[in-house]
Amino acid sequence: MKLNWAERWVVNNPIRVLEQRLQMSWFKARAPLDRGGIILEIGAGRGAGASLILREFHPSVLHASDLDYDMIRRAKDYLSPGERARISLITADATHLPYRDQALDAVFGFGFLHHVPEWRAALDEVARILKGGGIYFMEELYPSLYQNCITRHLLVHPTEDRFRSADLRIALKERGFRMEAAAETRHVGILAILRKD
Ligand SMILES: C[S@@+](CC[C@H](N)C(=O)[O-])C[C@H]1O[C@@H](n2cnc3c(N)ncnc32)[C@H](O)[C@@H]1O
Q1: In what order do the strands lie in the sheet with 87-91?
Q2: If pLDDT is split at 50, 70 and 90, which confidence band does 63 have?
Q3: What are the pLDDT digits (tens) for 6-56?
Q4: Using the 8-state DSSP alphabet, how is residue 60 labeled?
């Protein structure tokens, strides 16, 4: 589901970049990937996360995808020409990703999954395209944050079948993900490193 004007303002904001820098340091301290991997960021928005992934994890190939072509267009403007040359930007739905089975070393997802009505199908896709031993770096939010009495009037999200901590953990386990590290704020969201068996 595409973002409305209010959430576009929240994510296309320098404060969001600072937050993502801290999250990236947290990820890197706990799961430093080998250089030269093949990495995908799903729901990449305007590309701030992809720029940080390039700098911190030095992939040989970095794909950055988003459902919304307007976000991909913003990423083309946001990234420097050097970064642009090293990132393949594509418009794609997380529930139908155009990658072969077990093609990727790592997947990053900063706050995209709670925008997907069929979020379990998106997790199926992440599990399908990751190699055995590959890592899913995840930041996700829970409905008490984005669908409370205030935010439900400001933001637009799917309303049915929303995941909270327990639902998410069960769905990840069912798809063969082992949680190697997590920082969770009750009812708010989670930052996690998940290794595919
Ligand atoms: C909250 S924004 C996060 C953007 C960026 N990752 C960040 O952290 O600043 C969620 C992003 O997921 C994208 N998105 C929503 N549904 C999607 C889907 N089904 N497949 C891929 N991307 C999706 C939105 O267009 C949006 O850019």
Answers
A1: 87-91, 61-66, 38-42, 104-110, 130-141, 189-196, 177-185
A2: very high
A3: 888 877 888 989 999 999 999 999 998 999 999 999 999 999 999 999 999
A4: S
Which of 39, 115, 139 is the pocket-test mutation for ligand 1 (most atoms within 8 Å of CB)?
115
pLDDT in tens, 148-169: 988 888 888 999 999 999 999 9
Residue 7: per-residue pLDDT: 82
Amino acid at 91: T
- DSSP state at residue 12: S
> Residue 191: CB within 6 Å of ligand 1?
no
Contact between residue 41 and residue 110 where contact means Cβ atoms under 8 Å apart: yes
CA separation for the pair 72, 129 (Å, rounded): 21
Domain ranges, ordered by start, for the chain: 5-175
What's the CA gap between 89 and 50, in Å, rounded? 10
5-175 in CATH: which number?
3.40.50.150
Q: For residue 134, which phi and psi values (nearest 5 degrees)?
A: -70, 165
Q: What is the band of 95 on the pLDDT scale with cuts at 50, 70, 90? A: very high
For a ligand 1 pocket test, name from 15, 66, 73, 151 the mutation site with the most ligand atoms within 8 angstroms of its C-beta. Answer: 66
The contacts of residue 128 (CB under 8 Å, 6+ apart) are 97, 101, 102
